[in-house]
Amino acid sequence: MRDSIFISYSHQDRKFLNELQTMLKSFQRLGTVNVWDDTQIQPGDQWREEIQKALAKAKAAVLLVSTNFLASDFIAQNELPPLLEAAKKDGLRVFWVCLDNCPHEKTEIVDYQAVHDLSKLVSDLKPNQRKAIWKNLCQRLEGLEQARQLHPR
Questions:
Q1: For position 46, what pLDDT does the model report?
Q2: Which residues touch 89 (CB under 8 Å, ≥6 apart)?
Q3: What would the mean pLDDT of 39-58 be, rounded to a whole number?
């Protein structure tokens, strides 16, 4: 059963992952969202295999899109193809946040609605403005869970 949120990001953008994780904590404590990101992969685990397992359980994916994210061969080869395939075939919801001035319009993710106004890049915003974007995203993710509980498959 798809019941978790898969977060994809570039390790160079860890600061933004930490901000999002902090905002998600209260939702996780309430049990309204279950989050997976690659920080949960244990030493000795096989990355590709763990990512495949996590994607198979995900009801939504959050992409923290930046120049680093788009430049990552690992993300391009191992995360995006199965993620976008699951979005097309299995109903995986895709939410993305544009962190910096990157050529996102040249990618497959442009077909999915960004979480925020793209004229306001997250990296340019003040901390409280970024928190508003993270909060909005968390509420959307929580809304997915509430909808699932009302209409289980």
A1: 87
A2: none
A3: 87
Q: Where are the domains of the chain?
A: 4-150
CATH of domain 4-150: 3.40.50.10140
* Distance in angstroms (rounded) separating the CA atoms of residues 90 and 68: 28
Mean pLDDT value across residues 82-94: 92
Question: Which pLDDT score is estimated for 145?
Answer: 64
Structure tokens at 117: 């106004």
Tokens of 114: 């960004």
Of 153, 138, 149, 108, the C-alpha closest to 33 is: 138
DSSP string, 63-108: EEE-HHHHH-HHIIIIIHHHHHHHHHHS--EEEEEE-SS--GGGSG
pLDDT of residue 147: 54
Measured in degrees and rounded to the nearest 5, phi and psi for residue 19 equal -65, -45
Our CA dihedral for 120, 133, 65, 142, rounded to 10 degrees, sits at -150
